[in-house]
Amino acid sequence: MSETLLKDDILRHLTYTLGKDPDHAQTYDWRMALSFAVRDRIVESWFAATRKTYDADAKRVYYLSMEFLIGRLLEDGIINLRLLDEAREAFETLGLDFQTVVEDEPDAALGNGGLGRLAACFLESLSTLGVPAYGYGIRYEHGLFKQGIVGGRQVETPETWLSQQHAWEFERPEVRLPIGFGGKVKVTGERAVWTPAEAVDAEGFDTPIVGWQGKWANTLRLWSAKAQEPFDLNRFNEGAYAAAAEPEALARTISRVLYPDDSTEAGKELRLKQEYFFTAASLRDILRRYDSTHNDITQLPKRVAIQLNDTHPAIAGPELVRLLHDERGMTFDDAVETARACLSYTNHTLLPEALESWGEGLFGRLLPRHLTLVDRIDAAHAKANPTRKVAARGDGQVKMGELSFIMAHKVNGVSALHTGLMKETVFEELHRLHLERIVNQTNGVTPRRWLLSCNPRLSGLITESIGDAWVDDLEQLKGLESHIEDAAWLDAYHAAKQDNKAELSNWMGQTQGFAADPHMMFDVQIKRMHEYKRQHLNILETIALWQEIRDNPNAGWTPRLKLFAGKAAPSYYFAKDIIRLINDVAEIVNADPVTSPYLKVAFIPNYNVSLAEKLIPAADLSEQISTAGKEASGTGNMKFALNGAPTIGTLDGANVEIREHVGEENFFLFGMTAQEVMDRRSVADHAAQAIAADPRLARAVEAVRKGTFAPGDTDRHAGIAYNIAGPDYFLVASDFSDYWRVQREVDSAFADEKGWARMAALNTARSGWFSSDRTIKGYVSDIWGASSLL
Ligand SMILES: *Cc1c(COP(=O)(O)O)cnc(C)c1O
Question: What is its main location (predicted)?
Answer without folding.
Answer: cytoplasm
